[in-house]
Amino acid sequence: MYWFLVLELLAVAWGDIRTQKIPNSWSLLNLGCFAMLLFVWPEHYPLALSTFLYSAVFLAVGFVLFLLKIMGGGDSKFLFSFFLLIPVTLQARALVLLLLSTILIGGFLLLTNIGRNHEKIVAYMKSGYIRGIKECFGTKFSFAPVILLAWLWLGWEIGMFTF
Q1: Exposure check for the chain: N or C terminus, fewer CB within 10 A?
Q2: What pTM was computed for the model?
Q3: 144 lies in a domain?
Q4: Is 22 exposed, middle or buried (0-12, 13-18, 19+ CB in 10 A)?
Q5: Virtual torsion, Cα 120, 123, 128, 129, nearest 10 deg
Q6: Closest by alpha carbon to 84, among 107, 56, 64?
Q7: Overall domain count for the chain
Q8: Does 122 score more than 80 pLDDT?
Q9: Nearest 10 degrees: CA dihedral of 145, 70, 75, 150?
Q10: C-alpha–C-alpha distance, residues 145 and 17, integer Å
Q11: 163 located within any domain
Q12: Which domain holds residue 73?
């Protein structure tokens, strides 16, 4: 299952970078896979509240972030369905690594934008032109590559890269 998700994330990340959208078909594929996993590996995917906890939180928080125009709707739906495919025992660590990856990539992009636009930012701050400051940072970034980074990190931790 790990390598299937790596391949899926590579495709989703590539599409997200190119189009800034994650099609619903990926979420539907994940939901179909999850329904199958309930029967194939019930020890890793039990039909229990704990299996749905992280996914439900992603759906709720993702909806709020979507309303605030911080996260795209496809990102939150994909995270919801993606976390259903993570075995329950790994979901907490996957969340921590996703948060760390978001901080690393988001921080890098923030510092890059500040470095690239520092003169504009200072000028806009002096003039009080807040919209100009926002424009220096652009729009939302593609989140699927961040999910991919977190998933690869988790794979490294659980020994998926030992040859």
Answers
A1: C
A2: 0.86
A3: yes
A4: buried
A5: -30
A6: 56
A7: 1
A8: yes
A9: 40
A10: 8
A11: no
A12: 2-157
